[in-house]
Write a structure and sequence with these properties.
This protein has about 100 residues and is α+β, with helices and mostly antiparallel strands. The protein contains three helices and four strands; from the N terminus they run βαβββαα. The chain has a single domain (about 1-95), classed as TATA-Binding Protein (2-Layer Sandwich), CATH 3.30.310.
Length: about 100
């Protein structure tokens, strides 16, 4: 499971965002699990200023660039951080350990 910190001051309706991108309704604070084309099974939960996401790709995954773009766009809107910013945060966190 990967933790994504949500940018300070970035407020988004995560349940509406998940519904827009993946067509699934639920409560991210309680936890959600669903499948997404080209990505696989996604489990997500929001706790405070963090978004915890676990993905299980399909064994014969064939999503390509469209699925990756959709996923990165979703994470940008959900966390307020670009892929580059998320990478820096993960590297910083790894160095602390």
């Amino acid at each position: 499971m990967r933790e994504y910190s949500i940018k300070r001051g970035h407020n988004t309706d995560l349940s509406a965002l998940v519904e827009d991108y993946f067509g699934v309704r639920g409560n991210p604070e309680e936890g959600m699990s669903f499948t997404a084309d080209g990505i696989g099974t996604i489990r997500l939960r929001r706790t405070g200023a963090s978004l915890f996401i676990e993905t299980e790709p399909y064994p014969d995954m064939t999503g390509g660039a469209d699925a990756i773009k959709k996923w990165n766009d979703f994470l940008l809107e959900a966390t307020g951080r670009t892929a580059k910013e998320r990478k820096k945060m993960l590297e910083k966190k790894a160095k602390r350990k």
